[in-house]
Design goal:
Blueprint (H helix, E strand, L loop, with lengths): L5 E6 L28 E6 L48 E2 L5 E6 L4 E5 L12 E11 L2 E5 L5 E5 L3 E11 L5 E10 L7 E2 L3 E7 L9 E7 L14 E7 L3 E9 L2 E8 L1 E9 L2 E14 L3 E5 L3 E3 L2 E2 L8 E4 L5 E3 L4 E4 L4 E9 L2 E10 L1 H16 L1 E2 L9 E2 L1 H10 L15 H10 L3 E5 L6 H4 L8 E4 L12 E13 L5 E7 L10 E4 L4
Helix pairs in contact: 1-2
């Protein structure tokens, strides 16, 4: 008579934590949680057609108790099935990440669920066998485990909760641990701004790059707590003058810090842990109306200080009176000499500066011609000589050929940049080499004049010195100024943004 066989398979998983807590119990603030997972026993019955009594073979016929050993045998996979008591809770309020340390925040008084299953993703995806243990330390939450293996929480007061989760790797005795910190924000119901308005006058010159800092202190913060990035949800919106740019805002040391620039007033609505504060940020960005100007010989340009909140008398000076002089009212008048002079204005403890560039008549006409062409034309090398198009060398040739320099070609097809550069070098028109840096001596000594030409070198094109670009100098602008009023200048271009530079040399096509 055939007997039925039963095989019992027992899968065991345990979560070991300091202390013992039955499933579903509550961990109050300051307590430690632990949880045991019961063994799972599964009984599997072998189908009748697969049962064999002693002495029977697979087809049910009777044979001897001795059997031949097969020539080859298949290995038995004894790897235990993937077991994890933690389920993914996609609707959880807090989803802990896969980083070695995860920081997050919740609002005081809030409640919800915490999902720790997301720690199984990222670099561990597909490797985690099971949850081995969980440890919680909390001074700010009531915590209880839920059916997904995560937690339900209530943020009872300000502070933090630490969660340490240990996982076992699949097919490996190694254990990996993740630690998470959740901050509970302070109760903001009694907080207030000690001051809500900030107003200042500052040097708003573009070369100063200043962003005045406004500090708005928050009073009434619960005792012993300090608002900072870790325990604060912070956001803000702005309205008001388009002439003021808010560059950043943050919370630290129980203060809201705001940085910006410009001239005018912005209203900032800042929300700190759900509490809304309205801030006024008013700037007076004092500066000159121009930091660079291009004029012809014996022509004038008016400089003046704007956005100054007091009426001190400005003192004006020119670094090169032989190029241009400046009056007591800031009127700059060029002499008959080409070049650049730095005009300084001292008033109210500030020093402002502008570079005034003076060009002779033919150079100024060539520079104006370039701008006229650029207004109605599009860059194209294939169509460089077609009406409405240009490239760098045809633009220069068109502008200069009727003003004293045709590069040896009076009409027809414009020469390329390498030809133009070689032509001027052969004519003895080279001024200096340039490495492309702002600090180069030829730049800071302002050796170049409006209307001089730049030739970019170093290309592997088989042409003279590898020249592949020509550009026209329009003068200089102020790059920076130190505390003593000493300026650093930067080249300005007819068809390039200020700041352009590379290995090259300069020539002066017109005297």
């Amino acid at each position: 008579m055939h007997n039925r066989k039963k095989i019992a398979i027992v899968l065991a998983a345990a979560m070991l934590i300091t202390g013992t807590l039955n499933s579903g119990s509550i961990v109050q603030a300051g307590e430690i949680q632990s949880e045991e997972v019961q063994a799972v026993v599964e009984e599997t019955e072998i189908p009748a057609n697969e049962q064999k009594a002693d002495g029977e073979i697979g087809d049910g016929s009777t044979g001897t108790t001795e059997t031949e050993t097969p020539e080859t045998t298949q290995p038995v996979d004894e790897t235990p099935a993937f077991v994890s008591p933690v389920k993914i809770n996609k609707k959880a309020d807090i989803k802990l990440g896969s980083g070695s340390t995860n920081l997050t925040k919740v609002l005081y008084g809030s409640s919800g669920t915490i999902d720790i299953s997301t720690a199984k993703k990222g670099e561990w995806k597909g490797l985690i066998k099971k949850l081995a243990s969980r440890t919680i330390t909390s001074d700010s939450m009531s915590i209880s485990p839920n059916a997904t293996g995560g937690y339900n929480y209530v943020a009872t007061h300000s502070g933090y909760i630490n969660i340490t989760v240990t996982y076992q790797l699949e097919y490996d005795p190694t254990f990996l641990t993740k630690s998470f910190t959740i901050y509970v924000t302070p109760d903001m119901s009694s907080t207030y701004l000690e001051q809500s308005t900030y107003e200042t006058t500052y040097d708003g010159s573009p070369y100063r790059y200043e962003n005045p800092m406004a500090v708005y202190r928050i009073g009434g913060v619960p005792g012993g707590l300090t608002l900072d990035a870790n325990n604060t949800f912070f956001s803000y919106t702005v309205s008001g003058s388009k002439k003021v740019n808010i560059t950043s805002a943050s919370v630290s040391g129980n203060c809201i810090y705001v940085y910006g620039n410009g001239n005018g007033t912005k209203t900032i609505t800042a929300t700190v842990n759900g509490k809304e504060f309205v801030l006024t940020y008013q700037l007076h960005g004092a500066q000159l109306n121009k930091t660079t100007a291009l004029i012809g010989v014996k022509k004038s340009v008016q400089l003046k200080v704007k956005n100054l909140t007091y009426t001190d008398t400005p003192v004006w000076t020119s670094s090169k009176p032989s190029v241009a002089e400046v009056s007591e009212t800031g009127l700059v008048t060029a002499k008959s000499k080409a070049g650049t002079t730095i005009i300084r204005c001292q008033v109210g403890g500030y020093t402002f500066a502008a570079a005034v560039n003076v060009a002779k008549t033919k150079k100024l006409k060539a520079l104006n011609k370039i701008q006229d062409i650029l207004k109605v034309s599009t860059y194209s090398q294939p169509k460089r000589m077609t009406q409405g198009y240009y490239d760098c060398s045809s633009l220069v040739w068109r502008a200069f050929k009727d003003n004293g320099c045709n590069f040896g070609i009076k009409s027809g097809w414009a020469p390329v940049a390498a030809y133009e550069g070689q032509y001027l070098v052969n004519k003895g028109k080279k001024i200096c080499e340039w490495d492309g840096s702002v600090d180069a001596k030829c730049v800071q000594k302002m050796k170049m004049q409006p209307g001089d030409l730049f030739f970019g070198t170093g290309a592997n094109n088989g042409r003279y010195r590898g020249i592949d670009h020509v550009e026209t100098v329009t003068g200089y602008d102020i790059f920076s100024m130190d505390s003593e009023g000493n300026v650093k200048v930067i080249i300005t271009w007819a068809n390039r943004a200020t700041g352009y530079g590379r290995a090259s040399f300069f020539c002066r096509p017109l005297g």
